[in-house]
Amino acid sequence: MWRGTSPVRLHRAVAGTVALLFPPRCFLCAGPVDLLEPLCSACTGALPRWEEPGCAVCGRPVGAGREICPQCSVAPRWYSAVRSLGPYEGELLVLIRALKYGGERALARPLGELLAQLAGEEADAARWVTCVPPDPRRLRQREHHAAEELARTTAGALGLPYRKLLYKPRSTPPQVGRSRRERTVALAERFATLRPGREEGVIVVDDVYTTGATAAEAARALRAGGYGDVLILAVAHTFDDAN
Ligand SMILES: [Zn+2]
Ligand SMILES: [Zn+2]
Fold first, then answer.
1. Are 135 and 145 within 8 A, CB to CB?
2. In the chain, where does the domain assigned CATH 3.40.50 lie?
3. Which fold has domain 51-242?
C-alpha cells in the first residue's frame, strides 16, 4: 500500500494512524494538534501546492504569459475549469492514499476545507456539490468512497448542499452485434443523472485528477442532464499524459 514512500514517511504514517485515536496527534508529523484536527497547521501549510497559476481551464502548468494550455485551446470541453491543490506527490499522495485505502476518513475534512478555499469565488455560481460515482466493485473492497467524503466536507466548508447527482448505470449493454459507432457511444455513456437539472451550477469533487476522462464524462452527463456550469475540484492532479 505504501510502495514508493520512504521508511521515514511510512513510520510517520503508521505512527499517525495510531495517534489519531488518542491523544490527538498530527497524522503526518505526530505533533500535537487541537482536538479532532487530523493535521497540524504546519503540515497543512507545507502540503505541496502549485506555485504558479496554471492553465485557466485545466490547471496544467503553462509557460509565462500563457493563459490556456495547448490542449485546452483546441479540445472541446464540458466543464468550465479544473482546480487542484497541487501535484500528486509527497504529502498529498500520502494523505490521499491514507484516505482512500487506509480508512483515514478524518483527513477528508481538512482537505475539503482547502478545496473550498481554492474554489473561492468560482464556487459562487454553484448550487450543488457532488462527486463522481464509485465503481461498485471497487467500493465493496474499499468500503467507503473517498470522493464522496471529500465532496461532503467541501460542501460543508462552502455552505452548499452535497447532493448525489450522478450514477453509474449498472451494466454496459452487450457489445456483440453492435456497430463500432454504437459501441463507442455505449462506452462513453458511463454516467447518468439521477434527476433533471434546471441550469444550476455544480461542483464535482474528486481525489485525483488524472487524464481528465472521468471528470469530462461527469461534466458531460451533468450538462446533458440539464445542469449549468461544472467546476471540477480535485485534491491532486497528475500529468501522466505529459510525461
Ligand atoms: Zn503535523
Ligand atoms: Zn488546459
1. no
2. 51-242
3. Rossmann fold (3.40.50)
Judge whether 223 and 194 are in contact, CB under 8 Å: no
Could you tell me the distance, in angstroms and rounded to a whole number, from the CA of residue 49 to the centre of ligand 2? 17
Dihedral sign from CA coordinates of 229, 235, 239, 241? negative
Distance 89 CA to ligand 1 centre (A): 17
- What pTM, to 2 d.p., does this model score? 0.81
Separate counts of helices (H) and strands (E) for the chain: 9, 6
> Which listed ligand is nearest to 31 at the C-alpha?
1
- For residue 44, which ligand has an atom nearest its CA? 1
**How many Å apart are CA 232 and CA 225, to the nearest integer?**
17
Distance 40 CA to ligand 1 centre (A): 4
CA 3 / ligand 1 centre spacing (Å)? 22
Q: Which residue pairs from 60-64 have beta carbons closer than 8 angstroms and sit at least 24 positions apart in sequence?
A: 60/237, 60/239, 60/242, 61/239
Ligand nearest to the CA of 110: 1
For the CA of 77, the nearest ligand: 2
Closest CA to 200 of 235, 160, 169: 160
pLDDT tens-digit profile, the chain (243 residues): 344 444 445 444 554 554 445 678 999 999 999 888 999 999 999 999 988 888 888 888 887 888 888 888 887 789 999 999 999 999 999 999 999 998 899 999 999 999 999 999 999 999 999 998 887 666 666 567 899 999 999 999 999 999 999 998 875 555 555 565 554 544 555 899 999 999 999 999 999 998 788 888 999 999 999 999 999 999 999 876 543
